[in-house]
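for the recovery benchmark. tokens below, seq after
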């Protein structure tokens, strides 16, 4: 009869990385090259997988598809000995060696943990939204791809004041920007004045339906009006995937973003967080920079290997 292993029988690794997006995989690459044992447990829900083609990720002049980038990063990390497993980490608790971790029917003990769990965007209620994202009709990040808008007829769909703020940013790239208000809350006078200043149209009538069409997105309001847009940017918020951090009592902001110090360590010693799950700009380049910082901090926090060598410079 198979028995569940005791804590003493559990595999001990230097660092567990939760999440296999660009940040998590970059952290694994660094740690593997530091000759640290590391395991990436990835649920397969990286926000990068939504990207049809990124043109602002350095080193790829023609652009690169998000899933293709993840494939390259997985190959690079694993080539140096990082272990990659598909699964969902369900529970973390303190352990004498660091942390006891359960994912699926497996358990391990990790001396350090890096959370790279990201965020989950709130998408509009519309049919075939994933296909619309793949075709560039629904876009999730104006910082990433606003350059490609190039005068298109664009809508920002969300709570009034937040949507107006996003629309002002998009006026850099198009003179046809509309805010479609989601919900009942009206914009304040200052936000309305800002929209007028930037010649941003407001549609406040409640949305009855959003649906992809051959040339973009069709929007129908409750009053029966139909509007057509080339592109729609949802501004409906996002959920921080910080449940594991909160299990351990980690400090988070009021929205659930994980708070970290200058070395990306959380309020729990030995637990680090990088990328979108922390506060700050939601960009792959930010996540991979934080991954390098956190991986180096993790390496330096562990004692040297028996064969010697000094710790890397922080």
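predicted aa per position
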């Amino acid at each position: 009869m198979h028995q569940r292993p005791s804590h003493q029988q559990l595999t001990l690794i230097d660092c567990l990385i939760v999440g296999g997006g660009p940040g998590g995989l970059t952290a694994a690459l660094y740690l593997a090259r530091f000759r640290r044992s590391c395991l990436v447990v990835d649920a397969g829900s990286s926000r990068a997988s939504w990207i049809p083609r990124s043109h602002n990720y350095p080193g790829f002049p023609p652009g690169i598809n998000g899933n293709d980038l993840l494939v390259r990063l997985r190959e690079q990390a694993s080539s140096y000995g990082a272990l990659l497993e598909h699964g969902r980490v369900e529970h973390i608790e303190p352990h004498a060696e660091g942390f006891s971790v359960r994912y699926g029917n497996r358990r391990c003990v990790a001396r350090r943990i890096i959370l790279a769990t990201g965020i989950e965007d709130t998408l509009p209620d519309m049919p075939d939204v994933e296909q619309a994202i793949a075709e560039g009709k629904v876009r999730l990040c104006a910082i990433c791809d606003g350059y490609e808008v190039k005068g298109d007829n664009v809508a920002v769909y969300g709570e009034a004041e937040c949507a107006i703020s996003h629309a002002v940013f998009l006026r850099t790239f198009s003179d046809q920007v509309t805010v479609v208000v989601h919900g009942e809350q009206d914009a304040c006078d200052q936000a309305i004045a800002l929209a007028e200043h930037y010649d941003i149209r407001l549609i406040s009538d409640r949305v009855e339906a959003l649906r992809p069409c051959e040339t973009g997105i069709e929007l129908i309001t409750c009053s029966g009006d139909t509007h057509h847009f080339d592109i729609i940017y949802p501004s409906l918020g996002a959920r921080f995937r910080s449940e594991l951090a909160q299990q351990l009592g980690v400090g988070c902001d009021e929205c659930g973003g994980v708070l970290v110090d200058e070395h990306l360590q959380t309020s729990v010693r030995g637990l680090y967080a990088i990328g979108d799950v922390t506060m700050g700009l939601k960009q792959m380049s930010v996540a991979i920079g934080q991954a390098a910082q956190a991986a180096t901090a993790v390496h330096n926090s562990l004692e040297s290997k028996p064969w010697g060598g000094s710790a890397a410079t922080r």
